[in-house]
Design goal:
177 residues, mainly alpha, 8 helices, elongated
Length: 177
Amino acid sequence: MTTYPQKLERIRLARSYSKGAIRLVRAIETVVFILVATSLSQSGCAWSRSRSIETEFFKLPLEEQYRRFANYSYGAQYDIYTYGCDKLEPPELSLAKTFAAGGEPVATLLTEKLKEANDDRAIVNIVSVLYWINRLNTFDLRDDVGLKALLTRKIDAMKIDEWKQIAERDFKEIYSS
């Protein structure tokens, strides 16, 4: 038969084991929390790094922006241009002309971007640069029947009337000259 002091000792041992188990669970929870927080902060940093070129670019004085813009890759120019059109108020549309100076490689890039574009804003931004490519005569877009058909489909699918009208006007200007 178990004596009273032995029972008390068993209760104390059980309590100490449960306190240890609680400490272990808390330690595991802390480690998991740190791992998740670290993972989220690193993915957050990756996103912010992907947008840092654009945000840093628009912090520069205007003259410095114009001087540096042409030195970026066409992919970076596209990202900067669309960021300026989509995120700034008023939208920064003046980069379209400088971007369009790239001619055929820019037209090729924009064709790929246009294939992926599903929103009116992206489509009108792309058509605006194509307008300037035509206007500056840096590449003859009229020879590209595939681009013309793609533009027609994308512009016809636009939902916002004001942007659709702008895209249609630029489209007519490209293919009427």
